Input
Amino acid sequence: MIDIRNVSKSYNKGQIKAVDDLTLTVRPGEIFGFLGPNGAGKTTTIKLIVGLLKPDAGTIAVAGWDTQSEPLRAKAVTTYVPDTPAIYERLTGLEYLNFIGDVYGVPKKARLERIEKWLDIFELASAVSSPIQSYSHGMKQKIVLIAALLPGPKVMVLDEPMVGLDARAAHHMKEMMREHCDAGGTLFFSTHIMEVAEKLCDRIGIIHKGRLIACGTMEELQTRNREEQSLESIFLELTDK
Ligand SMILES: Nc1ncnc2c1ncn2[C@@H]1O[C@H](COP(=O)(O)OP(=O)(O)OP(=O)(O)O)[C@@H](O)[C@H]1O
Ligand SMILES: [Mg+2]
Output
């Protein structure tokens, strides 16, 4: 569903190699967790997947659509939650959600049902008529998450989605991620929370200095290292260089 082949990306005219020959496939119905130390290349990879950055080399396809030659088709099946919720602050929460609904062509009935459901779950119903600039960080994060759920996308790409969420919202977020994938959707997310990755992900990739240094199910990562090892100790061992 997400097919990344030999992708490289540098900044500052090649001085900083943020992603180095990355090859990775995320299958339909899979929750894929992307881990790595600060500056490892997670956000860069995510921006490449959603078409915000152009690879220097290699190709990326989402649901079969090449992100360079078919950008609109790739974007139409993908939603994205950035690491900082950058949204139209002057719009109210409801105006923003309707704007996203219009962009993705979500039919009225489905739109209303989904908005009502998610506002209720994320306890945001009372704030939805206020401008987004008045929201707390967590509330902004929630409205962006609801916007990402609204189109019922094939692929969700989330950059550190738990940051700023309270325990209840984080719990609902994890349930939502599982539901999305049980219904056949695919989810790619980055996180620093080892527990979340260990419990939630079907497969995990670890990136270090732009290179994928491990990829597989929790069991596969364990046997490659030592059985019974926690994800935290696998991570610390592999990235200790
Ligand atoms: N716009 C940019 N211009 C120059 N260098 C950048 C830019 N964005 C990222 N980098 C560099 O690319 C590398 C990878 O950064 P990236 O943001 O992808 O890391 P990350 O894994 O998301 O880190 P974090 O866990 O801190 O979010 C880092 O060395 C970073 O300094
Ligand atoms: Mg990042």
About this structure: The radius of gyration is 18 Å. Residues 42-43, 83 surround magnesium ion (ligand 2) (CB under 6 Å). The CA atoms of residues 138 and 163 lie 8 Å apart.
